[in-house]
Structures are given as C-alpha cells and as structure tokens.
Design a protein that fits this description.
Layout: E1 6-12, H1 24-27, H2 32-45, E2 48-54, H3 58-71, E3 74-78, H4 87-94, E4 100-104, E5 126-129, H5 134-152
Parallel strand pairs: 1-2, 1-3, 3-4, 4-5
C-alpha cells in the first residue's frame, strides 16, 4: 500500500501580500511569493504537499480552515492581526482535529503589549515567532514531527504491552 502523502495548509492573513515592502525593519524584505516557493521545496523534501494561501478577508480564512478539516493533515497559520481578537477564527480552528502551528514573522513579545496575547495560541499545537521568513520552514519541520508522532501513537482503546522486570 502506498504511503499517504500529507497535504499541509499554510494560511496567511491580512497584509502579508505586502511582505518585502511593508515595514521591512520588522518583517524583512522577503516577499510572500518567495516564502511560498521555499515552503514548496521544504514540503517536498519532507514528503508533503502544501496548499499555500493568503487572504485579507477573515471569512475567506475561515472557509479555508473548514476546507482543511477534510483535505489536510495539518494547518500552519499566520493569522496576523486576527491573532489578537478574532473569536470566529478561533472557533473555526477549534473545530479542526488536526495539528495547528501558529507562526509570526516578528517576535510578538518584543513588540507593543497588544501583540502579546494571541487567542489563536489557545488551540495551536505550537507557536513559532521571531525567526522571519525562516519560521515557515521551522513550522513545516515541526509539522513533520507532529504527524510522525501521531502516526506512532497507540490507537485509542488499545494498550501497549509493557514488560515488567
């Protein structure tokens, strides 16, 4: 039987279409298109495919999260400003039984205090912030680890036998 190929949704929120030109001292000079290309290379090396998307519209992000429930093995999300106040985005992510990795290009904890409390973090398996565009590669590697660990976990209702000395 062929090995299952994992499809990872990489979702990007508002204003990330302006990466490379918007506040480069904070977000760097790498364009989102370059991040997408690099994610494709890293995903392929890990045996994944990735569905890389960006929207400036909250509802569209929510629709993609709903879609990911059936078409994805995990979600990497950079929710940008929605991280800090979007209850509807949080609720959509709560409905997903997949690993979720939240990513931020900047270190949100070195910024103004209103950037410190991401509500998306409540449902994230893990959070990566402050590593610039490289954070996306880190997130893909972390997702590979999460999916590998979940494939090795015992099935519910089954107990592993342990030998006693």
């Amino acid at each position: 039987m062929p090995k299952k190929t994992h499809n990872i949704y990489i979702l990007n929120g508002p204003n990330l279409n302006l990466l490379g030109v918007r506040e480069p001292k904070i977000y760097g000079r790498v364009a989102l298109r370059e991040i997408q290309e690099r994610c494709g290379i890293v995903a392929a090396a890990l045996g994944f495919t990735c569905d890389f998307r960006q929207s400036n519209h909250e509802g569209e992000l929510i629709e993609w999260i709903h879609e990911a429930r059936e078409r994805s093995s995990g979600i990497i999300i950079n929710p940008t400003g929605y991280s800090f106040y979007s209850i509807v985005l949080l609720d959509a992510l709560k409905a997903v039984d997949l690993p979720i990795i939240e990513i931020h290009i900047s270190n949100i904890f070195r910024r103004e205090s209103y950037y410190h409390d991401s509500i998306v973090s409540f449902v994230a398996t893990g959070v990566i912030c402050g590593f610039g565009a490289y954070g996306y590669e880190m997130a893909l590697n972390a997702m590979a680890q999460q999916l590998s660990a979940s494939n090795q976990a015992p099935k519910a209702g089954r107990r592993r036998r342990t030998s006693r000395p």
